[in-house]
Amino acid sequence: MHKSFHIAAKGLICSEGNILLLRDGQFWDLPGGRIDDDESPKQTLIRELTEELPGIKDVKIGQLVGWHRARTYSPKKDHALMLIIFLVEAQLPEPIQLSHEHQEAKWFPIETAGKFSPQLSNIDWSLVK
User: Fold this and answer.
1) CA distance 76 to 72
2) What are phi and psi of 62, to 5 degrees?
3) pLDDT tens string for the chain (129 positions)?
């Protein structure tokens, strides 16, 4: 079977021991998205953060802190998705504003966030301050 393979850049935004996750339907997700055309992963992440979190300011993309292979990306199983996860510093408006792509934003404690998002399973937490 021929499989299409996509790479997405995701942002780990932390504040006071919490991680920002966005709800898309029934799933909690890190902000970010697929790399388009000739974009670098960091360019992609800045574009996606600006689209998904209107009003975000002073975005600084930090080091690569993890990865995740999304195994349930395509119902037909003909697409694969690899997420690369970067540490992000940014100023977010209060309350957080969302695009039409997500229904909710929520801060989850670092200790329990992995229960809500499998994307956090391969994070090098020693790199997260």
Assistant:
1) 9
2) -95, -150
3) 567 888 999 999 999 999 999 998 888 999 999 999 899 999 999 999 999 999 999 999 999 999 998 866 555 667 788 999 999 999 999 999 999 999 999 999 999 999 999 899 999 999 987
Instruction: Tell me how far apart the alpha carbons of residues 75 and 83 are, in angstroms, rounded to a whole number.
Output: 18
Q: What is the pTM of this model?
A: 0.91
Domain at 4-127, CATH from 3.40.50.1970, 3.20.20.70, 3.90.79.10, 3.40.50.2300: 3.90.79.10
In this structure, are strands 32-34 and 57-70 parallel, antiparallel, or unpaired? unpaired
Residue 78: what residue type? D
